[in-house]
Amino acid sequence: MLAQKRILLIIGGGIAAYKSLDLIRRLSERGAAVRVVMTEAAQHFVTPLAAGALSHDRVFTDLFDREAEHDIGHIRLSREADLIIVAPATADLLAKMAHGFADDLATCVLLASDKKVLVAPAMNPQMWAHAATRRNAARLAADGVAFVGPNAGAMAERGENGPGRMAEPLEIVAAAARLLVPSGPLTGRHILVTSGPTHEPIDPVRYIANRSSGKQGHAIAAAAARAGAQVTLVSGPVNLPDPIGVEVRHVESARDMLAAVEAALPADAAVFAAAVADWRAASAAGEKMKKDGNAIPPLALAENPDILATVSHLSNRRPRLVVGFAAETENVIAYAQAKRARKGCDWIVANDVSQRSGIPGGVMGGDSNAVHFITAEAVEHWPEASKTEVAERLVARIAATFGPLETVS
Ligand code: CTP
Q1: Rounded to whole angstroms, how far apart are CA atoms 367 and 215?
Q2: 407 found inside a domain
Q3: Which of 156, 180, 204 corresponds to the end of one domain?
Q4: Is 325 in the pocket of ligand 1 (CB under 6 A)?
Q5: Which CATH number characterizes residue 54's domain?
Q6: Which of 61, 142, 164, 269 yields a CA-CA distance of 20 to 30 A from 334?
Q7: What is the pLDDT, as a whole number, of residue 75?
Q8: How far is the CA of 276 from the centre of ligand 1 (A)?
Q9: Under a CB-based contact definition with an 8 Å cutoff, are residues 208 and 199 in contact?
Q10: Which residues contact 221 (CB under 8 A, 6 or more apart)?
Q11: Please, which pLDDT band fits residue 356 given cuts at 50, 70 and 90?
């Protein structure tokens, strides 16, 4: 979603400016071309040299820079962007934006722009709570400016606490991606997805795992994001990049996954594609287990919580649509239908993980999948397709079930 996008990052003068350097890197990693404008105050915190090295471009700081004005100019700076991000947005910058001031390059660019603007405020909690800042923020929101953060937490000033911390770079990236996504059939919906295996520790160096690659779950999260949804992906350990425009929570064990899933609720739909380990070591050793002569240590197991069943049976926060997966090696449809009823989910996407499936490379770890789509009423056979195509088909079904968003007038 950020690939080929041009982002103009305006860095304001606050201690959080150091995080904006990381933000440049995170945006570039995702394929965005980042151009940086720094206010004079910002240069007291980070240098144009650092920002330029990370953005691979010159950094713009001065409205009256003859060379830059001749070469690019503040009008072109704002026109040649798909999105403007102001991070950190100080109380002063917000005030200037709210009132249309244009007394330096940053504010000129903002005033000359007809592009979407995302601000990441960062300031002392008292300044954020002040009536003047509240008025300015409300004015900007009414003008269509998008906000990410501020988050609550410890401030740079010792002992100070409260809302005022700049959102983390990855939160800003996710907010930017959402703004750049053309709205789709799932715009306004929150979709929760689990993906990958879980690792259940035996001791600090050993764990129980399975062959899940996370490819199918990650493809579903990415497809839902492309369809405009706000997506939270709770992922076990995988060798895959975080999908673009998706909020990713990385976890290790089944119990961590359950906690992250519960923390991500409420959601409109939840898709449980993770291959959660059914069992964990009953008591993981705190230190590495050593070979002790010929005695082989017994491995006692305990059952993990069933995340899909837990969420399906929630009385108040159950998502409207809960989708499970079933990996079976025989009696695929009958077992999957029984699993749907037992676990209490709405749909099951069942796949044959036996060697007989004929899927090159096997379903687990491979790039394609052939599934049976099972609801309370029917069974559909979806022919072999790439995991991305299966994900898109599933996401289209979810969107069709929800229909257009009821707008509150
Ligand atoms: N699942 C889960 N939490 C668990 C185990 C499974 O959320 N502790 C979810 C998976 O994400 C998947 C579905 O349950 O959506 C089916 O998992 P599967 O491993 O196929 O089923 P099992 O519960 O292991 O049943 P069985 O052993 O009978 O195959």
Answers
A1: 7
A2: no
A3: 180
A4: yes
A5: 3.40.50.1950
A6: 269
A7: 77
A8: 6
A9: yes
A10: 191, 193, 195, 231, 233, 243, 246
A11: low
User: Does residue 276 have its Cβ closer than 6 Å to ligand 1?
Assistant: yes
The closest-lying atom of ligand 1 relative to the alpha carbon of residue 304 is 8
Is 336 near ligand 1, meaning CB less than 6 Å away?
no
300 and 194 in a common domain: yes
19 and 75 in a single domain? The answer is yes
Q: How far is the CA of 220 from the centre of ligand 1 (A)?
A: 18
Q: Which atom of ligand 1 is nearest to the CA of 325?
A: 15
Q: What is the pLDDT of residues 193-207, one digit of tens each?
A: 999 999 999 999 999
The domain of 17 spans: 6-180
Residue to mutate, 276, 313, 332, 371, ligand 1, most ligand atoms under 8 Å from C-beta: 276
253/273 same-domain check: yes
Question: In terms of Cα–Cα distance, which of 350, 348, 345 is closest to 318?
Answer: 345
Extract the tokens encoding 303.
């059952």
For the entire predicted model, the pTM comes to 0.68
Residue 308 marked in a binding site: yes
Q: Sign of the C-alpha dihedral, residues 335, 215, 232, 151? A: positive
Quick check: CB of 324 below 6 Å from ligand 1?
yes
pLDDT digit string, tens, across residues 161-212: 789 999 999 999 999 988 887 678 998 899 999 999 999 999 999 999 999 9
Question: How many structural domains is the chain composed of?
Answer: 2
How far is residue 352's CA from residue 268's CA, in Å, rounded to a whole number? 28
Same domain, 129 and 45: yes
Ligand 1 centroid to Cα of residue 11, in Å, is 47
Q: What are the catalytic residues?
A: 210
Q: What pLDDT score does 134 carry? A: 97
